[in-house]
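thought: fold this chain, then report.
action: predict
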Amino acid sequence: MAENIFSNNYSNDTNDKILVELAKQGKLEALEELVLKHQSWIYNISLRMTGSIHDAEDTTQEILIKILTRLSTFNGKSSFRTWLYRIVANHVFNMNRKKQEYLFSSFEEHRNLLKHSPDMRLDDSYIRNIEQKVLVEETKVRCLMGMILCLDRKQRLVFILGSVFSTSSKIGGEIMEISPENFRKILSRARKQLRSYIDERCSLLNKHGSCKCIRKTQAAIEAGYVNPDNLQFETGYIKIVKDFASQHSSKVDDTLSMSFHLLFKEQPFWDSPDYIRLLNEKIKTIETAWGGLKSK
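observation:
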């Protein structure tokens, strides 16, 4: 099982620093190893920050190019993980607003979208080639990602780090360049907002909730949010976040149940596209930025 990059016990920071020094010497294999180690984590952050696979791919590409062109400035005085994910954080804070962010600009917008999506029986024609539960799961994942987008960008990233990937307040604070206490406060507010909204109508945690994924799936298909012929978030063939992230969660509010804690950890952990190919295509850009990175 791959190591959680954000774990307190992350054991590869020293190795990362060695890889950076080798990359500076022109060892492209070291550069590729760094990309392979971190690309999926960057991609999964980007996906939850944008709510779109296409936007996440573009955002991850932009971040990786930014990291590679700045790698020569890493002086080794701090954790490489902190240095790298500060670049990630700054990028996702300052990027242009994405389409899904306009769609889910607030919990009220999310609520209205669901309110105007009629409860419908799932069309039997879709069950011929794909199981009903797969379509329902796709709808659920998209809806939960939309909820995360309702948080402002700072709350969103803190929630992704602290709740989804179990980042401690110390490490999270270093990445966000805020105090651990402030990280915990932001995380607590984000969790309370999400929990309050989910408890309101969603049946995932509230068995009496009126909004059920299975009743919204057909409407999601007809609106184009879910494409049975091109499923993007189905979890049957990919890893789950909780397999990578520790089950430990810092205590922020006694009213938060374990079921809420696990709700977002049971979402997929997606493999990223092949950014090694991108690296090879962009090598001239990197050479210019570094002042002459050469293959060995």
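thought: worth noting. The mean pLDDT is 85.
final: tokens above.
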